[in-house]
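Now read the record:
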Amino acid sequence: MTGSSVTDTFPTPTIAPLGDAALLVRFGTALTDSANRAAIALVALLQRAPVPGVVEVAPSLVSVLLRYDPLTAAAADIAAELRLRLYALAAAAPPPGREWTIPIRFDGPDFDSVAAALKLRPAAFIAAHNGAPLRVLATGFAPGFVYCGLHAEALVLPRRTEVRPMVPAGTVLFAAGQTAITATELPTGWHVIGSTEFNNFDPAAEPPTQLSPGDRVSFTVAP
């Protein structure tokens, strides 16, 4: 789907096949606030008005993957139903997400170097980082992993050039205009700026994660 704008609010999407059992709806090739909001709004719309034949809806930062059973559904039919929903996307934008406050400790090994790279004193970086709520942009990559953003342009910093072999659950990461929180042990190329007691993954719970795309997170300094 190209060449026509779905709405005046969201970017024009493209629909492309991904293998023989999935379609990808992409709202951009780079992370922007409007592309992310569009992806979140589409997922909410598909939850309210599912496309017949779709067995899974998997969002990412600027795109949404729809998996279907090719034995019972045709890609052309899925795409046609999807276009109808895309044309109604602006009117179906979801309500604001839930509000969260997450205390963090700025005790990460990269905290001082991040502040210095941004030409800020440590206290000024903390004030800027916590100065405004962030949206949950997406969850995934690893169980409970959450991306929050977008920070102001003055706080945008590239990822590290080297990957840390492993960081624990509850690690607060910073890069590319975002703050992320790990919920499991994993390697990372993000800057490690702190830690938190907040746990976003409980495999015994339903759902297993607390934060959802579109929620708003306010970060505070942990006592």
Observations:
- The mean pLDDT is 93.
- The chain has two domains: 14-87, 99-221.
- The domain at 99-221 is CATH 2.40.100.10 (Cyclophilin).
